[in-house]
Specification:
The complex is a heterodimer.
Chain A: H1 3-8, H2 10-32, H3 39-46, H4 49-64, H5 72-84, H6 86-89, H7 91-114, H8 119-137, H9 147-153, H10 162-179, H11 182-192, H12 194-199, H13 204-230, H14 241-251, H15 263-282, H16 290-314
Chain B: H1 2-10, H2 14-31, H3 35-62, H4 72-87, H5 94-118, H6 123-142, H7 151-158, E1 160-161, E2 164-165, H8 166-184, H9 186-196, H10 198-203, H11 208-233, H12 245-255, H13 268-286, H14 291-315
Antiparallel strand pairs in B: 1-2
Helix pairs in contact in B: 2-3, 2-13, 3-8, 3-11, 3-12, 3-13, 4-5, 4-6, 4-11, 5-6, 5-11, 7-11, 8-9, 9-11, 12-13, 13-14
The chains are: A mainly alpha, B mainly alpha.
Chain lengths: 315, 316
């Protein structure tokens, strides 16, 4: 395939779609508010995208093994509550609790695999458990983020705003781990062809537990970043993340079955969704329509992808 | 005893009734006196709403893996808001309000189906995307709106004959009808065939696209109707009224013994598990469990029941 053919191929357009949609919304924002085109402006625009991007990556690990996590929002809320209470007051207890969360997620993965349970139902049930723990820990909104987390999320590196830097690092690290290592191939293989992985002598149980544990790790990162930005927590702080993270993965070109995922796309998808919400406020449209606009962006991108796929099929 | 065991194995829904009855008996023994009967009556009232959306979700889930309607909560909210605005508290406008709600349901169903068909995306993604739009419309329309439901609607949603809620009687009759639809009509058999093997169903001449369209519409319309009665029951619409129905609608289907993989569903189980879900929370309330603990236990019990039920199917 020569260079020109590549740029007209369906594969190129499918891969470029997440980046194009982010560019499109970003241009819209710059057009409406040119002052956003600065270090400070970008910082403000993308600040809240970082925890969402982390939660989206967390969701992506589960989607990669053909499951779906409907509890990530309440899990991130729980982590935020742990961050604002135990991690602040008694750091050792806080760390132990977070490690316990990772173990609980791995156990959930094991349960889903061993009993062949529908992940939707198990994670929906677990979302009650996380919410319950969060309510017990922090019955009313409050607590305060540990100083080191505050310092980390408000850090101002020269030239490049922190959220952009964080997003790039996140995308590259996860991309490298999942797409460029043999470990990553195995992980995605569980979603692609479970039987082939088993026949090759790998334990799908262990792989699934690892993927769920990775979900917990990135969920924890999301929760801690969020509590650092918000400075305090509440038990419902991140409930919206459940659907946002699924939307982000899909927007970024991930598919529901077959272990087809794209870490870079997922981060771009999460940023697009966050930016869509601010785009509306720049247009002076009531924030009531924020969720609707995010849904509309999702539908438009999916429609464009359907068109690309159909072009490919015709050839 | 053997015959009881055999019956329960053949009728997976009987487990949910057993669970509901046990929970009720434990709670009733704890509160003693006539409280048990009052509890049963309240359980019937609340579970009717779970049953309404559960039946719609069941037909969707029967279509096979990946078929779940995530737009039920937002449809409930939007239809409640729209119907309350149309009725405007007046008894004479009830019919119009119900028609508007059904209209909302038909539109959501059509929209869900079009997304699945035109964009060829998994139904979970399609219904999730549309739920964003529906929820947003409900928020934009319903913010600050405080309209009381018409008295007649409130009456039919809450009235009881000898302790039995009228709405529950209506829903029982409806559920029997839907059980007949599922097991004895061409539509119901087609849905089951669709879930067992879509390709085989298509080759056998089942109009699979029409079946899928009807099923998603049925689910959305039932959610919409549930929204109207729920608004009548709780004295108006509120923006988070649909929230708990995401878990509830899926949980009642799975706990009721229908296969989450599709192709094998039953209606009675939805009733049993709806009662169980309500009684479970009531039991934890009675024992004085704190809000957090109640949530944790509810979640763990749901996971436990699914683990148990899932294993049962595997062994067969």
């Amino acid at each position: 395939m020569n260079g020109l053919q590549f740029f007209t191929s369906a594969r190129f357009w499918r891969g470029a779609l997440p980046a194009l949609s982010l560019t499109f919304v970003l241009l819209g924002v710059f057009w409406l508010q040119p002052r956003a085109m600065s270090y400070f402006g970008l910082n403000l625009l993308f600040n809240l995208a970082v925890p969402i991007a982390l939660a989206t990556i967390a969701q992506m690990f589960v989607i990669a093994v053909n499951d779906l996590d409907l509890s990530i929002g309440s899990f991130v809320s729980l982590v935020a509550c742990i961050g604002a209470t135990w991690l602040h007051d008694t750091p050792l207890l806080g760390i132990a609790a977070l490690l316990g969360c990772v173990a609980a997620y791995a156990a959930m993965g094991a349960l889903i695999y061993i009993r062949q349970l529908p992940s939707i139902v198990v994670t929906l049930g677990m979302s009650f458990v996380w919410s319950g723990c969060a309510v017990l820990l922090l019955p009313t909104p409050g607590g305060s983020a540990p100083d080191w987390i505050r310092a980390l999320v408000t850090f101002k590196p020269p030239y490049i705003p922190m959220p952009i830097l964080a997003a790039v690092v996140l995308a590259l690290v996860v991309h490298f781990a999942l797409m460029r290592t043999s470990w990553g191939v195995l992980m995605r293989g569980v979603g692609g062809n479970e039987r082939a992985i088993t026949r090759a002598g790998w334990s799908v149980l262990k792989l699934k537990m690892t993927m769920y544990a990775m979900t917990a790790v990135f969920g924890i990162l999301a929760g801690l970043t969020l509590v650092g930005l918000a400075t305090s927590a509440d038990a419902n702080i991140a409930l919206r993340y459940t659907l946002l993270s699924i939307a982000g993965v899909i927007l970024g070109g991930g598919e529901f079955v077959g272990g087809r995922i794209s870490p870079v796309g997922a981060v771009l998808g999460a940023m697009t969704l966050t930016l869509t919400a601010s785009f509306l406020s720049f247009l002076r449209i009531s924030p009531d329509w924020q969720i609707g606009a995010q849904g509309a962006v999702l539908i438009i991108v999916l429609a464009l992808r359907a068109i690309v796929n159909r072009m490919e099929a015709r050839r | 005893m053997k015959r009881v065991q055999a019956f329960m194995r053949q009728h997976p829904w009987s487990w949910s009734f057993l669970a509901a009855f046990t929970t009720w008996a434990v709670t009733a023994a704890y509160i003693s006196g006539t409280g048990g009967l009052a509890l049963a009556s309240t359980a019937l009232s609340f579970s009717t709403f779970f049953v309404m959306v559960g039946i719609g979700q069941m037909f969707v889930i029967t279509l096979g893996p990946g078929n779940v309607d995530l737009s039920i909560p937002s449809t409930i909210t939007l239809s409640a808001v729209v119907s309350m605005m149309v009725m405007d508290g007046s008894n004479t406008l009830i019919v119009l309000g119900v028609l508007a709600a059904v209209g909302v349901g038909l539109l959501v169903g059509l929209f869900n189906y079009s997304l699945i068909r035109v964009l060829s995306i998994p139904p979970i993604i399609a219904t999730m995307s549309s739920s964003f739009l529906v929820q947003s419309s409900a928020i934009a329309l319903g913010r600050g709106v405080k309209i009381k439901p018409p008295l007649a609607l409130e009456w039919i949603s809450t009235a009881k004959i000898l302790g039995v809620p009228i709405l529950a009687l209506l829903v029982i009759a409806f559920a029997i009808g839907m059980a007949v639809v599922l097991n004895r009509t061409i539509y119901g058999r087609s849905v089951t065939a669709f879930g067992q093997n879509t390709r085989a169903a298509k080759l056998a001449g089942v109009p699979i696209e029409r079946i899928r369209y009807l099923t998603y519409t049925l689910s959305a319309v039932l959610a919409a109707v549930c929204g109207v009665f729920l608004a009548g029951f709780s004295g108006g619409s509120s923006l988070n009224m649909g929230e708990e129905y995401l878990l509830a609608s899926i949980a009642v289907v799975v706990i009721g013994g229908s296969s989450i993989a599709g192709g094998n569903s039953n209606v009675p189980g939805i009733f049993g598990s709806a009662l169980f879900l309500f009684l479970l929370v009531a039991m934890l309330n009675t024992f004085g469990a704190a809000a957090g603990l109640r949530l944790i236990l509810t979640g763990l019990i749901i996971v436990g029941v699914v683990t148990f039920a899932g294993g049962r199917k595997e062994s067969r």
